[in-house]
């Protein structure tokens, strides 16, 4: 990834190609979230046809996906530290997209549960290798912003999943939405594989020199991939990893839970149906999410220079504290358009953690351990966040239904907001040890 002064840059070093790769990774991540979140906007249609309870829908949205997604991510990341990351990502995209299409053929709860597990199997290979690729395509000073751009796939994919899933369900039916969106991802997989290449690992991780020092060009040291035991031996000694991981996981409990249940809330408590609900949710997810993710990455890169590593967890921690009362306020405004603009702010603040926290995780281990370390982080974040959050809010809604009827989901969402406060506390604590644990 480095060349001598005056030498022509290799194709992988050219900025235009780097940005192309980042764009392709973001598009794949967008499909990741389209297929992951489309169930949320389709839930009322599925519930009407198959008579599922909120707890059953919570099982489909949470544990069915999270158990295999979280646990398989670790061995797949181990492979990604040893073989082609682009092959793993392309294969994973084809698998999860195929299972998304299969969801459209569901005949009952068991079939849909198994298909959602298949989506989780595929998506397990998408994210950790992508984090590692971004870290090897961009220098340290740009990584939080690059990872923030990659993370645009979260709000864009969520928004497009809401929009296309809702519009297709309203125009045709919910089964067609699964099939059409799934097949689109299958078509993208070979394009990604043919056009995105693997860079040298750790090519941008040479020690920085002072401006007045002579430039010494040395090739990056290619290190042998580390074992699980070696990576975990490093992580166990770094308290910031655990506070960052469980802080992010607590935020994901409510983040994923709200993303899944808000479409049903808008139907039950605000009377929104069909295409209107699809456009409404897509706007909140897309505009609020993109603004928040970029703001978090930009602030972390700006404030986290030099020894100010604490900015990486502090930026999202402050965002979570502000988001809690704003979410509550937005849910209690009668005018739906005023509510829309109020929802944009906490939506933005609740996703500002992605660029800063993911960047910090990348810098807790040497470059040859990044895929496995990222998967370890994702194991905690997704097993707790997706696995618990969506099901928990559905189960609380069922529990409260005898007392609150259609408004039970509102009170379940209130309960979930406290996980943002817990996330902020854990991220504040992580800031104390991050500077010591950081690896340049």
Write the layout of secondary structure elements.
Elements: H1 15-50, H2 54-61, H3 63-80, H4 85-103, H5 109-123, H6 127-137, H7 143-151, H8 153-171, H9 174-195, H10 228-236, H11 239-270, H12 274-303, H13 311-330, H14 336-350, H15 354-362, H16 370-404, H17 408-416, H18 418-437
Helix pairs in contact: 1-2, 1-4, 1-5, 1-6, 1-7, 1-8, 1-9, 1-11, 2-3, 2-5, 2-16, 3-5, 3-16, 4-5, 4-6, 4-9, 6-16, 7-12, 7-15, 8-9, 8-12, 11-12, 11-16, 11-17, 11-18, 12-13, 12-14, 13-14, 13-15, 13-18, 16-17
Q: Calculate Rg over CA atoms.
A: 21 Å
Distance between the termini: 17 Å
Question: Can you tell me the overall shape?
Answer: globular
**Helices and strands: which structural class?**
mainly alpha
Helix run count: 18
Task: Return the average pLDDT rounded to an integer.
Answer: 86
Q: Biggest sheet, open or closed, and with what strands and sense?
A: none
Low-confidence stretches: 1-10, 208-222
What is the N-to-C order of secondary-structure elements (H for helix, E for strand)? HHHHHHHHHHHHHHHHHH
Provide the helix percentage. over 70%
Strand content: under 5%
Tally of DSSP β-strands: 0
